Amino acid sequence: MPAGKMHVAEVDTDASLVRRLLAAQFPRWADLPIAPVHSAGTDNAIYRLGEDMAVRLPRIDWAIGQVDKEHQWLPRLAPLLPLAIPVPLAKGTPGEGYPWQWSVYRWLEGENATIERIADPGQAARDLALFIAALRRIAPMGGPPPGPPNSSRGVPLSTRDAPTRAAIATLHGMLDTDAVTAAWEAALQAPAWHGPPVWIHGDLQSGNLLAVRGRLSAVIDFGCLGVGDPACDVIVAWNLLSADTRDDFRAALPVDDATWARGRGWALSIGLIALPYYQNTSPVIAASARRTIAEVLADHKHGV
User: Fold this and answer.
1) Which residue in 70, 69, 71, 59 sits closest to 100, CA to CA?
2) Phi and psi angles of residue 148, each rounded to the nearest 5 degrees, phi first
3) Domain boundaries for CATH 3.30.200.20 within the chain
4) CA torsion, points 225, 290, 285, 250, in degrees to nearest 10?
5) Which one, out of 41, 49, 94, 268, has a CA that is 20 to 30 A from the CA of 58?
6) pLDDT (tens digit, 9 = 90+) per residue, 13-34?
7) CATH of domain 15-106
8) Which residues sit opposite 103 in a β-bridge?
9) Closest CA to 167 of 181, 157, 155
């Protein structure tokens, strides 16, 4: 794997490329300062443009459909949500050696909302619950269904069985694979979702949440946005929240026992698949995956 990259087939980007793309397509912005943004995001390279904009370029081919999706849906969803979300300003086209569409967005202030940066974790749990509930209330007609463009978020949990077990096999010696397998098999026993599809962000975790002065302020990176099983957004209960704040989150979010159990399964599956993939390329994601797995195992052990 080349140094600094997360994927074997990742394309190269740098500030010089961004400036050339802007000069060719949006010359009014071409003379603004450009600086790379260090991020644990896996799908897009991000560059700050001036004081109030950001440029996002897909790193990898599976992320290229996110550009059209975000430009189509984010302006429609934003007025209906209680937290800020990205505002697309312009859509770029391939050029200057870069092969795909790319975007300019309004810059959102804040820092990644890790649990250490949140002043009141209980309030953050309630804010997340309100955001998810508001997203679910939006009519899903026309929304993108689960599939490769959104990493199949929102599909039945059982469809993740084979890749999850394959990940468990690669983690032998790194984790208690017997305990992990037992927790995964317990999640698979939860009844499937038989209600109508609902809007889901699909990747709620600290890297996609911003906080200002210790309070949750924005949700970013809607690459996994789609409509499907609502359990997928419950993952934040284990990848960010603690056991105590999970109670606050669940109390504020209308969710049945089966959806909660499937959400725990989603969190476990995502963590297990991410850990071997990113353990040598993204310490932040690998650490988050380990924490998520540990939180799920603790809940499973105590029968929560």
Assistant:
1) 59
2) -55, -40
3) 15-106
4) 30
5) 268
6) 999 999 999 999 999 999 999 9
7) 3.30.200.20
8) 56, 91
9) 181
The two tokens of residue 118 are: 């949140």
Amino acid at 207: G
Q: Exposed (0-12), middle (13-18) or buried (19+): which is 133, by Cβ within 10 Å?
A: middle
User: Is the pTM above the cut of 0.90?
Assistant: yes
What does the pLDDT average to over 210-227?
96
Buried b (16+ CB within 10 A) or exposed e, 168-204: beebeeebebeebeebbebbbebeebeeebbbbbbbb
Residue 7 pLDDT greater than 80, yes or no: no
Residue 95 corresponds to which amino acid?
Answer: G
Return the closest-CA partner of residue 223 out of 66, 101, 82. 66
Q: How many residues does the chain have?
A: 304
Query: Is the domain covering 111-301 a CATH 3.90.370.10 domain?
Result: no
